[in-house]
């Protein structure tokens, strides 16, 4: 590493550059986490009398969120017209309690109350305890049917601003009104503290003037919750890349941030970060001109009230008979935060660079559950009419982290539309849990369709995905109590499930453990027993690439680990993924994969 390596946009790695773009309620949220008391009480009505690890044996226990959702409790609220949604992100848990009716009508935006609840997330009953503590709030949702509540359940200070990502997802999953967002501040006043006395919390009105935040606290709904308007104040307009690469909660303890910053990889990332810093909305004329100067036409579209974006090489309009492949990038471009769509262009900047060279067309869209993402079928149909130069035999799909689970799920459901898949930041093995559980039965069905898949992630992800030949290590305490695929046993089972879903021969524990002594460096580093491997160096880092043959002898499954990278997609990973995806087309008559 050479700390004298400098470049034009290196300033964007400096946290101070972004200080005015950070959520303005961040100081208040940190104060809540540092000064609140974690609810570690015993849940009074445990199912079958089971607590702790014993409760994890219950059928209604979800491993990903480490939560028991007692069916009778969920049904009680359902009978009252309230939908209960339980999720986890960044080491925290979160819940939605909203009127059932709003699930079917995304146009019906409802005022939203945000509640921070400090609770022991290691207790499988944390979600049930939250519902019980805030029963009056939930009664309000049931009785009024015109408001909703988001509960963000924390057990420590949210130093990584995870709450922003949680709210962004929540506003996409249900129709909360982003113009009517309120924060429950009762836990501040209960401690005898005023909002104006909290350090690092400055409240400004819509004109940017500093005002006393206590003077505008008003009762929310029939529950009369003391709440502060945080509309337009909870969002970040920072860089997702900068946050995930520089903040420690997205990496394990082996990670070296300086190596990234002082590298060609860091230089390329900073070029994308400059876009996030300079532009606020994708409808801004200057933003559109930026891509126009690069040779791209960037267009905003809507299908059934949901937003999607397209990036098309300008040359493609001159000769629409010349077909171009398509990459559907599943990354947020929705209305929850206008800056998200700008962030998407930065996060997948290398894909946009590839697109600008005339190699492909980009379609950008994602929602927050597999069923909602079925809308992509309609979007592709709409896009095909708008852009006749799309090659429908070469439609690829990609996504990072939880947005990497959705492309694989969509491809399994719609192999007639999708040719190949690239997932970033996900474990090499599949799991029978989470937002898109892969059961052995589903894996068996998936194996009937030839679907080329490449999975790429960092070797220093916070979940320490590699090598799968041993237990995970290097976990930071900030990563939280839940570590899926952390033991060798879990990893081996998950890998076998991945092999099954991809129609590949299975591997025993012994064969996986034997990778430790392999003569091939990539196989040793990933712990994946492959049939072909290579190590390549791009932009300052090694990438370990292992290919696995399927039962038909085709190299249609590929695992990639990038040296010293946290939970963030990189330019090198996007280049390698494109090199893999572009190999394939799908015969529209037979559905068979064609090797190009």
How would you describe what is shown here?
With 596 residues, this protein is an alpha/beta fold. Helix content is 31%, strand content 22%. The chain contains 21 helices and 21 strands. A 10-stranded mixed sheet has the order 10-11-13-12-14-15-16-19-18-17, sandwiched between helices. Helix 10 (264-278) runs antiparallel to helix 13. The radius of gyration is 24 Å and the shape is globular. The model has no long low-confidence stretch (mean pLDDT 94).
Task: List its traits.
single chain; 10-stranded mixed sheet; 596 residues; globular; alpha/beta
Q: Largest sheet, described in full? A: 10 strands, mixed
What coarse outline follows from CA principal-axis ratios? globular
Please mark out the parts with pLDDT under 50 across 5 or more consecutive residues, or reply none.
none
Number of helices: 21
Radius of gyration, CA atoms, in whole angstroms = 24 Å
Q: What is the strand tally?
A: 21
Distance between the termini: 39 Å
Strand order of the largest sheet: 10-11-13-12-14-15-16-19-18-17
SS content category: alpha/beta
Helical proportion?
25-40%
Mean pLDDT: 94
Percent of residues in β-strands: 15-25%
């Amino acid at each position: 590493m050479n700390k004298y390596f400098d470049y034009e946009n290196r300033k964007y790695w400096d946290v101070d550059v972004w200080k005015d773009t950070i959520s303005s309620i961040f100081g208040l949220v940190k104060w809540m986490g540092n000064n609140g008391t974690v609810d570690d009480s015993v849940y009074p009505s445990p199912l079958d009398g089971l607590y702790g690890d014993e409760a994890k044996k219950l059928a209604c226990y979800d491993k990903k969120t480490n939560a028991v959702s007692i069916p009778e409790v969920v049904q009680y609220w359902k009978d009252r017209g309230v939908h209960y949604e339980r999720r986890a992100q960044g080491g925290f848990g979160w819940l939605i309690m909203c009127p059932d009716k709003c699930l079917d009508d995304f146009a019906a935006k409802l005022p939203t109350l945000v509640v921070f609840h400090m609770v022991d997330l290691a207790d499988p009953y944390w979600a049930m305890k939250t519902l019980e503590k805030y029963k009056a709030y939930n009664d309000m949702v049931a009785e009024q049917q015109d408001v909703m509540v988001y509960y963000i359940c924390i057990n420590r200070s949210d130093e990584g601003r995870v709450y922003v990502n949680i709210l962004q997802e929540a506003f996409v999953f249900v129709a909360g009104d982003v113009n009517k967002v309120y924060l429950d501040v009762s836990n501040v006043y209960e401690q005898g503290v005023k909002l104006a006395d909290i350090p690092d919390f400055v409240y400004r009105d819509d004109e940017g003037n500093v005002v006393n935040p206590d003077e505008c606290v008003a009762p929310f709904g029939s529950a009369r919750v003391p709440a502060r308007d945080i509309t337009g104040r909870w969002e970040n307009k920072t860089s997702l890349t900068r946050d995930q690469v520089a903040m420690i909660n997205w990496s394990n303890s082996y990670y070296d941030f300086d190596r990234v910053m002082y590298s060609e990889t860091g230089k390329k990332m900073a070029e994308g970060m400059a876009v996030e810093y300079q532009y606020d909305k994708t409808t801004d004329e200057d933003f559109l001109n930026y891509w126009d100067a690069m040779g791209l036409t960037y267009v905003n579209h809507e299908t059934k009230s949901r937003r999607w974006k397209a990036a098309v090489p300008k040359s493609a309009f001159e000769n629409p008979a010349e077909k171009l492949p398509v990459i559907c990038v599943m990354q947020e471009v929705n209305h929850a935060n206008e800056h998200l769509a700008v962030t998407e262009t930065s996060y997948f900047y290398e894909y946009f660079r590839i697109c600008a060279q005339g190699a492909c067309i980009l379609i950008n869209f994602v929602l927050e559950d597999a069923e909602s993402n079925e809308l992509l079928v309609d979007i592709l149909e709409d896009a095909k009419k708008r852009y006749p130069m799309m090659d429908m035999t070469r439609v690829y799909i990609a996504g990072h982290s939880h947005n990497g689970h959705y492309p694989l799920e969509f491809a399994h459901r719609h192999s007639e539309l999708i040719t190949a898949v690239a997932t970033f930041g996900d474990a090499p093995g599949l799991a029978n849990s989470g937002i898109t559980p892969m059961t052995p039965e589903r894996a068996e069905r998936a194996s009937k369709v030839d679907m080329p898949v490449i999975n790429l992630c960092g070797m220093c992800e916070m979940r320490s995905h590699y090598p799968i030949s041993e237990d995970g290590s290097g976990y930071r305490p900030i990563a939280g109590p839940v570590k899926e695929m952390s033991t060798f046993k879990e990893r081996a089972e998950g890998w076998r499930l991945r092999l099954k879903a991809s129609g590949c021969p299975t591997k025993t524990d012994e064969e996986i453990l034997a990778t430790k002594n392999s003569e091939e460096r990539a196989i040793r580093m990933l712990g994946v027993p492959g049939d072909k491997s290579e190590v390549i160096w791009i932009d300052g880092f090694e990438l370990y690439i292992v290919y696995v043959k399927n039962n038909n002898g085709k190299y249609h499954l590929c695992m990639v680990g990038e040296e010293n990278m946290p939970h963030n997609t990189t330019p090198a990973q996007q280049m390698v993924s494109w090199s893999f995806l572009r190999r394939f087309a799908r015969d529209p008559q037979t559905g068979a994969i064609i090797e190009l």
